[in-house]
């Protein structure tokens, strides 16, 4: 059962999938398979065809990329969507959210984090999750290019982590965000990395494969980064962290790097923008009890459905997404 904490005025829509879809691994894995992605790609052909590819100019010469879809008539506002680590704007949850929001009357911008999607060539330095300022700059540039009376932000997984950190900084950065929704946000990155290392090996292999693939693409554009031979010998996330963190992030150890962007502790203590955090109790990557270690403010509402896995929330075998409905309710 959903258990909202610090509940606001929005009603809770119960997430109650059929029995087989209550398994967290089924929810998590099906969301990334062709069983969901192929029908979604067909259903969102018009959205993808009409999407405007945009390069955003941030401070210090940094550039980020995204896709913008506009409604032909006056809209309910602008919804900015942010994917998770090694996901992109064409991940199933991004396309599903964008399709639902666009048809409900929102304009939609799907923003890529550095070195995600087709953006590897835009910046010589590697992605890392402490690069919050460039995401703040990108959102500011989006609002300048596409001014709307209301702006909403939604992020999944690591995108949810970025979204909540951005919400804390938004007032001092001059950003007007009306509401932020974080779906299964990474709360304690170091603990999540340990879950990936020691939990279901499918998730570990998936992220090793995706991270390696991204690093190889980056190396094609910037061979001077010089890690090609070293990358061949790496078999685990621990191997990759031990090498890439001290060499390319400015942090001495993996643990200090992951602690630098954790939402636990006092990170959210100054949150004043209305924010809604959704985390399933059975998330296999984000331990739900991490919620007890984040700072609470009146601006933060927490919702913990019993089921959902990690960014799954599939309502039925038609692969309809509950988060689509939740965003529509919260953004309205």
Assign the CATH architecture: 3-Layer(aba) Sandwich
The first-level CATH class name:
Alpha Beta
Order of helices and strands: HHHEEEHEHEHEHHHHHEEH
Number of domains: 1
Rounded radius of gyration (Å): 19 Å
User: Beta fraction of the residues?
Assistant: 5-15%
Q: What fraction, in percent, of the residue positions are helical?
A: 25-40%
Question: What's the CATH topology label?
Answer: Rossmann fold
Q: Termini, distance in Å?
A: 23 Å
- The CATH superfamily bears the name Alpha/Beta hydrolase fold, catalytic domain
Strand order of the largest sheet: 1-2-4-3-5-6-7-8
Q: What gross morphology would you assign? A: globular
Structural classification: alpha/beta
Supply the number of helical segments.
12
Uncertain regions spanning at least 5 consecutive residues: 1-12
Please give the largest β-sheet. Answer: 8 strands, mixed
The average pLDDT is 94
Instruction: Tell me the number of strands.
Output: 8
Organism: Candidatus Seongchinamella marina
GO molecular function: hydrolase activity
Pfam families: Abhydrolase_1
Family: Belongs to the AB hydrolase superfamily. AB hydrolase 4 family.
Folded structure, characterized:
This is Alpha/beta fold hydrolase. GO terms for molecular function: hydrolase activity. Keywords: Hydrolase. Pfam families: Abhydrolase_1. The chain has about 325 residues and is of the alpha/beta class. The protein has a single domain, classed as Alpha/Beta hydrolase fold, catalytic domain (Rossmann fold). Helix content is about 40%, strand content about 15%. It has helices at about 25-30, 35-45, 45-50, 90-105, 130-145, 160-175, 190-200, 200-220, 230, 235-250, 255-260, 320-330; strands at about 50-55, 65-70, 75-80, 105-110, 150-155, 180-185, 275-280, 300-305. It has an eight-stranded mixed β-sheet. A hairpin with a 5-residue loop joins strand 1 and strand 2. The longest helix has 21 residues, at about 200-220. The relative contact order is 0.19.
């Amino acid at each position: 059962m959903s258990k909202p904490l610090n509940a606001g005025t929005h009603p809770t829509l119960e997430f109650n999938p059929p029995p087989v879809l209550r398994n967290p691994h089924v929810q998590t894995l099906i969301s990334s398979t062709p069983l969901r992605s192929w029908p979604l790609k067909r259903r969102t052909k018009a959205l993808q065809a009409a999407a405007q590819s945009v390069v955003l100019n941030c401070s210090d010469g940094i550039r980020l990329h995204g896709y913008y879809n506009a409604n032909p008539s006056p809209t309910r506002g602008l919804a900015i969507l942010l994917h998770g680590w090694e996901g992109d704007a064409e991940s199933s949850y991004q396309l599903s959210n964008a399709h639902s929001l666009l048809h409900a009357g929102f304009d939609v911008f799907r923003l890529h984090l550095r070195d995600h999607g087709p953006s590897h060539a835009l910046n010589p330095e590697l992605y890392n999750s402490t690069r919050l300022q460039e995401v703040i700059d990108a959102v500011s540039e989006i609002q300048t290019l596409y001014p709307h009376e209301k702006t909403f932000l939604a992020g999944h997984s690591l995108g949810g982590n970025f979204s909540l950190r951005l919400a804390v900084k938004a007032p001092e950065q001059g950003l007007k965000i009306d509401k932020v929704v974080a779906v299964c946000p990474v709360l304690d990155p170091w603990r999540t990395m340990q879950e990936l290392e020691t939990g279901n090996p499918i998730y570990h292999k998936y992220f090793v494969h995706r991270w390696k693939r991204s690093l190889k693409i980056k190396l094609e554009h910037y061979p001077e980064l010089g890690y090609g031979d070293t990358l061949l010998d790496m078999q685990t996330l621990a191997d990759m962290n031990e090498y890439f963190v001290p060499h390319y992030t400015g942090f001495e150890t993996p643990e200090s790097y992951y602690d630098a962007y954790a939402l636990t502790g006092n990170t959210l203590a100054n949150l004043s923008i209305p924010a809604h955090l959704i985390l399933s109790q059975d998330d296999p990557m984000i331990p739900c009890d991490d919620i007890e270690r984040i700072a609470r403010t009146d601006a933060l509402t927490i919702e913990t459905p019993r089921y959902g896995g990690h960014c799954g929330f599939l309502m039925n075998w038609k692969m309809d997404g509950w988060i689509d409905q939740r965003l529509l309710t919260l953004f309205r």
